[in-house]
Amino acid sequence: MESIDSDSSGDELAITVEILIQAQANLIAVNEGEEGFKGGSRKGKQPNRERWALEGARRLELDYFVPDCTYDDESFRRRFRMSQKLFIRIADAVAAVNPYFVQRPDATGKVGLTMLQKCTAAIRQLAYGASADSLDEYIRMAESTALKCLIEYCRTVLAVFEGEYLRAPNSQDIARLLESGRKRGFPGMLGSLDCCHWSWKNCPSAWAGQYQGKGKKPTIVLEAVASQDLWIWHAFFGMPGSNNDVNILERSPLFSELYSGRAPEVEFTINNRTYKHGYYLADGIYPKLSTLVQTITAPIGKKRKHFAQMQEAARKDIERAFGVVTSRFAMLKNPARLWNKEDLGTIMRACIVLHNMIIEDERDSHLAEDFIPTNDEDPVNNGSFVQFLENYAQVHDAELHKQLQNDLIEHLWQLKGDEED
């Protein structure tokens, strides 16, 4: 038995030595520029294609990122959907957190892709909805690498910026939203609420029935709230397309902080009545909640017709926001080609974060004059379960909903009369 064990150990040692010698010979051949080993990193895998990535990186820099670049700022903004300053800011922040975006040599000493190449590949896929393979000729990047850049970029953008650019409004934000709503004739308005669908081309067959909506194709639903400046304050993504807006609202965390007593205080007066909660403009499918104001179907009388016209005009904010996001990031307009639902959610939320960052970057300077100083301390949740039930009942109070709508009808009619006078 001992001789058999020693023979086995000797054979294993000989095989190990042979593998090390072969690996060293391959490395020497690569470093000396010889033809070397023709296989890939494992048996059956093709070797990496020489794409001249450094030349591609240099061409990208000459086109957009040097003082006397080929294309001007307008061309950069059109093709990257944002200013060069914002793009560099995001790229630097992403590279500082995720080492995947740092240019490094591989095991053979060959220098890899640059930060700008990887970030450009991700943005081009989001902006144009292009396939990963189409980036190879310009970015000099393989299809699998381009897809990995997309997912890593979106995940890192969320990790770094989601807490700031996709959050619930704080006290100062609410003060500005209330002032904006007051100027439009809707005191207490916090934004507009609606849903949109993203078609899922590669939805697994086992899920197709669950995700198939009225369009007979699998979709995933996004519920969002947007303000007049098209800033998206709330995004709830992932519900199957077979659900309608009411089902999605029941699962949404939109009113969670209001139920639990953590929402910032909102107080406004309409028609000599004081209300304690803000509201969102919505379409007719939503339930009659005290925090939602819908239009009037087939209104009778001048007052109600005027209210319906004003409500429908103001509610277009969310429709405009959806249109801008999908136009800015064409990947959201085209059917989703990825298989993983979590990756689709990451891409959707990352696009919304980037959308809000672009809005902030391009915001007119005169809006700073509308700043309203407020107490920025977040409310402390001292409520009990009884308080939770009271808040829930108040939100679902149909009588309060009707009273708010009637007060808004009178308020808008009074404003119309004052303008005519």
TrEMBL record:
It comes from the Eukaryota. This is Nuclease HARBI1. It comes from Culex pipiens pipiens (Northern house mosquito).
